[in-house]
Amino acid sequence: LAAMATKDPKAAAAHFQDEENFLLQSPQSGAGIAGAVAKEWAKRDPAAAIAWAQSLGPGLKGGAMAAIVGNLSVEDPAKAAQTASGLDLGDGDDRTRIYGQIGQAWAARDPAAAFEWIGGLPAGAQRDEATRRAVDTYAASDPQAAARLVDQMAGEEGHGRLVGAVVGPWARRDPVAAATWVSAQTEGSGRQEAVRNLMGTWTNTNPAAASTWLAAQPAGSSKDEGIVALSNTVLVSDPEGAATWAATINDPGKRGFQLKGMLDTWLRKDEAAARRWIEATGSLADDERARFLPPK
C-alpha cells in the first residue's frame, strides 16, 4: 500500500479501507500504513489527505494525521501548527504526539519561533510534550542556550525532565560546564536524571574527572543516581572500582540492589578476585558479606 500510495494515493486509501482488509484488524500496523498513505497523498493534495484522515476511526486517524503534520512540520512548522490547531483530534494522545512533532521540527529550524509558539499553548499535556521535544532538539545543537531557556522555566510543570534532557548532549561537548550547571540545580527528579546522564557520558571519556566531581557532591538521591551510572559504566573495565562505588550509595534499598548486581557479575567473571574483595573490604557489614559470598 505504501508503494501504491506513491503513484495513486487515492486508490491506496480506498484499498486500505476495504472491509476485508486484514490490516484494519491490527490498530498498530493499521495506523502505520494509514500514515504512509496519508503522507504520500498530502504531497499531492494536502486538503484531500486531511479530509481522508479525518474520516478514519480512532487510532487510524491519529496515525494518518501524525504523518501529514509531521511531514509538513519539516517543510513549514508554522503552517503545521496552524493545521494541527484546526484538526478534530480531541485532547488525547494523538494531539499530544502531533504537537511534539511540531515542537521538535520547529526547534531544529528556528528555536526562538518554536518556543514563542509553545509559550502560547495552554498548559497541559500538549504543551509539555512540545516543550520536551523542542528542548531535546535545541540541546543537541546548542546545549548552553537550551540550559538558559530551561532555567527560565524553573518552577513550571515538567521542568525537572527538561534539566535531564539538556545534560546528555552538553556532557558530550563540555562535561565540566555541564557539571557546573547541574550542581546549581535543586534536588529533585530532574537533577537525579541530569546527574545520571552526566555520569553515564563523562565516565566514558574521563572517569577520573567524573569520579572526582561525583565524590564532592552532597549525599542524596542525585548522587546515588550518579553512582549507579558510574558503577555500571566501569563494571567491565574495573569491577573492584564499580563495587567500591556501589557500596557508597546512601539509599539502603538501592545500595543493596546495585551491589548485588555488581558482585554477581564480578563473581561470574573472576570469582577469586571478587571473593577477596568481599572478604577484605571494610565497605560491607558482616551480614552483607555473608549474603553476597556464594558457598564454596
Describe the structure.
With 296 residues, the chain is mainly alpha-helical. It is built from 19 helices and no strands. The mean pLDDT is 88. The relative contact order is 0.05. Helix 13 runs parallel beside helix 15 and helix 17 packs antiparallel against helix 18. The longest helix has 18 residues.
- What do the pLDDT scores average to? 88
Spans of at least 5 consecutive residues with low confidence: none
Q: What fraction of residues sit in β-strands?
A: under 5%
What is the first-to-last residue Cα distance?
62 Å
Shape: elongated
Structural class based on helices, strands and sheet pairing: mainly alpha
Task: Summarize this structure as a short list of keywords or feature phrases.
about 300 residues, mainly alpha, about 75% helix, 19 helices, about 0% strand, single chain
Summary, kept brief:
The chain has 296 residues and is an all-alpha fold. The chain has helices spanning 2-7, 9-16, 27-44, 46-55, 60-75, 77-85, 93-109, 111-119, 125-141, 143-152, 159-173, 175-183, 189-205, 207-215, 221-234, 239-246, 252-269, 271-280, 286-292. The relative contact order is 0.05.
